[in-house]
Structure formats: structure tokens, C-alpha cells
Model the fold of this input.
Amino acid sequence: MGHKAKCAWVVLALAGVALPAGAQAGGSPPMRTRASCAIDSSMPSEADQALAQGRYADAELLYSASLKADPASGKAMAGLVRTAEGQDKIAEALALAKKVQAAYPKDADVLNALGEVRFRRGEVGEASLAFNNAAHLDPCNARTHYDASWFLAFYGMYASSHLRINMAHSLAPNDPVITRRWETTQRKPMTAEQQLAWLKDRLDHPSAPLTDDDRQAIEAAIKGVASSEKGSCELVTPMRATRLPIVPIAYGDAKTSQDIVAAGLDVLINGKRKRLEIDTGASGLLLSRSVAKAAGLVPELETTAEGFGDQGPASAYVTHVDSIRIGGMEFKNCMVRVLEKRSVLGTDGLIGTDVFRDFVVTLDTPGRELRLGPLPMRSDDPAAKPLTLRTSNQSAAPVLAESARDRYVAPEMKDWTPVFRSEHMLIFPTVVGNASTKLFLMDSSAEMSMITPAAAREVTSVTADPWRSVTGIDGKGRKVFAADSVGISFAGVRVVTWGMSSFDSALLSNDMGAELSGVIGFPTLRELVVSIDYRDNLVHVVYDPASGVHAH
Done:
């Protein structure tokens, strides 16, 4: 890495982040029933339609005209804020939201828009405060329930989220934004057989002549469904807990923890031993081209692999592996991805910790061990199902209403920290110095912890550093700055880094819908014991100065 960060550690009791009412307690607060609220059955205005369709210039003109006719219209003011946010003019949107909220502090529509911008900036505490205030001002405001719905889903409160989006849709059945989200939560996904039948019917009996591109796209979709259906990756050996040795990955001989640049796991791919890097920021299994060639794997479906870097996703393909053995566990018939370019991974591949999401995952890098244990039982647990390895990196399907459950905190996990999760990405509420709470991604494959220049400048100075760069999975790098002393606190621990790398996280933030202010990388994580419950969005982080060799 060229630069070795210096770290100082203390235990910190991290203050809880304010959340929409009911988030901490495992349920939603009392809501007015549909019968006690007036239903807004009006059709969306021209301005609302333009905003929902992404026609921001038209929306801005139309909302401005509405304000001229009614200078106190909260809906029009909120619409202008959302128009600026939709164009990624986040600073402008925040300034406008704060201005109109100061002028109209009792307007729920304005508060909702302010909360949305706050969340987009990753200011989760301020966002939830705005949403809660809006709910107290107008419990029947449909947009308030909509905002609470996606906030709660991001926080792992899926049942509460469904209650909110159902309420929002009941109050404003014709709102296009609310309806779009509501439909995704109500629609049951088709089975593989139904998908194949529907796609083949489109191919054989098109409603309009198909272009060559249309036909190729449908054929690719058919191939994708057929391929994914073949990979169950079920555990064939009965085992609910195991310990797996972590293999240090280093440049040269690893004598101390400072020499270790990654944590590895030895895996048998069709009987051939390969070393995969453990990556909390990745999903599924990603193999290098050379490993796939040696194992005789053939492409079945083209896809992409994403990561840091400015050049977009790298080309990859999906294929099947007959057998994957990890320690004493064997999984059969698994889908994996293969990076098509010459390997830039530095190892035989990556294994995301989310592949073990049927277990409680403990990454104990100081103790050189990855432990898997059973998830705590819930009273409403369905019948036992086979344990699987989630190797395919398929995006998580929407949580359906009948299966939606709120986070469960078992008695033995009462001291664990709730976190946000966007698919496989674990997002930690993080305090930076004495600034407001920010969002940081936990990424064990990052060679350094990083912070955005904007977040760093709130607490320290930032300078250009020509000797640093961040290399993505596509092999390309981006310019990196250096921040002076930065202290971050998350999940009960605090670390101070001198010369923390600073970079722009716009690509990741846009994908997630909220600003990521930094990355908790391997130089920090190699000092910690991190346990993860993906089902309930819970983590437990322990720093033991008596364990391992630590930076000073």
C-alpha cells in the first residue's frame, strides 16, 4: 500500500441514531386508521407527473408556476426540492429545503422533502427527525408513510415498512411515486417455469415485430432463467456450526498484522484447492479467469462485476460448479461468477461474507478464524429449510408482505449494533470527529480505510496525494487525497487514523440512494472480531488489545 496508517483505539459507547418511531422497538407506532383519514383520490398534477417521469426541467417550471398562484403551497415547495435532488443538485436541494422549512416549520410536506434530502446526504439522524416531526404534524400525510417505509426497509424493519407503504397507498392511491413502490412489494415473483413460459410466448407470439436486439435480449433472458434454476447450492452435509481457518494474504512473508493486506479462505472448487479473499463488500463467489480455465468451467450467462474504479462494471460470466467444499461443509451445484479480464484480484477470487447469510458469520482476523453458527430461533420461524451457499450474486428480491418480518434481537444479541443494509452491503452509522453521524461501508477487501473529501473537511484538512490511488475490479484507478487525523466511531469502537485516504464515493452512493461518507477497510478490520447477522441487520464488533498484533 506504500502508506501505513497509524491507529489508536479506545472503547466508545456509540450513541443510538434517531430512527423513525418504532424502529428501535421492533414495530411501528400507532397509526391513524384509513377510516380516520381523508383519502386523496385526486389525480397527480402535471408537475407531479413530470417529476415522477424524470422530466425535471418541466417539473421545475410547473412547480414554480404553482408557487406563484399559491406562495404557501407546501406541495409545490417540496416538489422543487425533489426536482433539484433528482438532478443530483444535492447542495442546492438542501439549501432550498432548509430555507422553506424555516419559513414554514409546521408544513409536513416541506419536512418530508427535507428528510429525503438529509437521507440522500447520509444524515440518517437528521432525516429521521424530519420524518418524525412530519408524522406528528400530519399523521395522515401519505408521503410521510412512504418515506418511513423505505427508511424502515433499509434498517431491516420489513413488516413495519409494509404497514407504512400500504397506509401511504391507501391515503393516496393515485400518487405515481407511492404506487410504484407499493406495486413492487405486492407483486409476487413468477416461478422459473412461469418466467420461461412468458418469455417463450413473447418470442413465439410477439404483439409487434421483434427487432434483432429484442430477440437477442429475450433469448438471453431465457438462458439466464434456465441457468439460474440449475444452481441450488445446498449444503449436503448436516452442519449448523463450524470453524474455518483464515489464511493471511500478504506481500512477501507475513510477520505481523501490519504486513497482512487481506484475509483468505481455502476452498475446494470441483476438488481443486483455491484461495479466495474474504470480502465483506462483495457478494457471492467471483473466480479469476485462470481458475475457471483450470477447472474447465464454461460461460453460461454474460454478466458484470462491480467495484471501485471509474470505468464502470467489468465483464464477467456466470457458470456452474458441481462441488464447493469449505472446511467440513460441501455444497452441490452452485452458480459462480468468473471475471473475464486477466485477473486484477491478486488471488484466485473473492468470496463475499454474504454467501454465509444462512448463518451468523464471525470474521476473527486477529484469531485467524472464520466461524459460522446458527441464527437464533424466532417464534415465527417457518419450517426448517435446507442451508445454502448464496454464491450467485443475484439481487435480493423484494420482501413480500406475507413473509415480511421486523428485525429480531435475540436475548443473547441485546448488545449487538443495528446497521443499515443495501442488498449485501453493510452500512454502519459512523460518527466522524464531532460532526454529525455519517454512513460508512464495511469492506474487508479495501486496502485502506477511506473518507470522502466533503466529510473529511468537516473535521480536518485534505490535501492532494499523488502517491495514492484506488484500483477497482476493472483494473482502473481514481485519484485519492489524504486527510489529516480522522477519528471515526462505529459499533462501539473508535479508531483514529493519521493520513486517511480520501476519495469520492458518488458511484456507490448513487447505487444505494444515500451518501456513503467512507469505507471501513482492512487495516481497521484486521484488528477486530466482527460478527454479522444478515437476516436481522445486526453486527457485533470487539476490539481486544491482547489479541493479535496491532498498529501503533
